[in-house]
Write a structure and sequence with these properties.
With about 130 residues, this protein is α+β, with helices and mostly antiparallel strands. It is about 20% helix and about 35% strand. The termini are close together.
Length: about 130
């Protein structure tokens, strides 16, 4: 069963977003990091990059594969998690604390089209 956290919003491409005021923290789910195996590199966006929901914003590479990162929400990148440059394995250790980008939301209502923890867990069950 996929580990999920209540209060986060999940996309079908296995990204999560934690909304805090006008900002969203975006990362990949525990399900995604388990499927990928040992993560060796995270290609992150630049600060001030702008993305729309559904747009690619980077990639995660593991010993098995590379996977594009798809933004679950629209906004402007405020910050990236610099810790991941030297320690991409932090995502394997705790996918929900190892956020990849902090984004200033331009359309906060987009979260309503994402899944909650229960729906995401059911979605992952179907994928297996």
């Amino acid at each position: 069963m996929a580990k999920t956290i209540e209060g986060l919003y999940y996309s079908e491409s296995h990204e999560w977003v934690r909304i805090e005021g006008e900002y969203g923290y975006v990362g990949i789910t525990d399900y995604a990091q388990q499927a990928m195996g040992n993560i060796v590199y995270v290609d992150m966006p630049e600060e001030d990059d702008e993305f729309t929901a559904g747009e690619e914003f980077g990639a995660v590479e593991s010993v098995k594969a590379a996977s594009d990162l798809i933004s679950p929400v629209s906004g402007v990148v405020e910050e990236i998690n610099n810790d991941l440059e030297d320690k991409p394995e932090l995502i394997n250790q705790d996918a929900y604390s190892a956020w990849i980008m902090k984004i200033r939301l331009t359309n906060p209502e987009e979260k309503d089209s994402l899944m909650d923890a229960t729906a995401y867990a059911a979605f992952c069950e179907k994928e297996q």
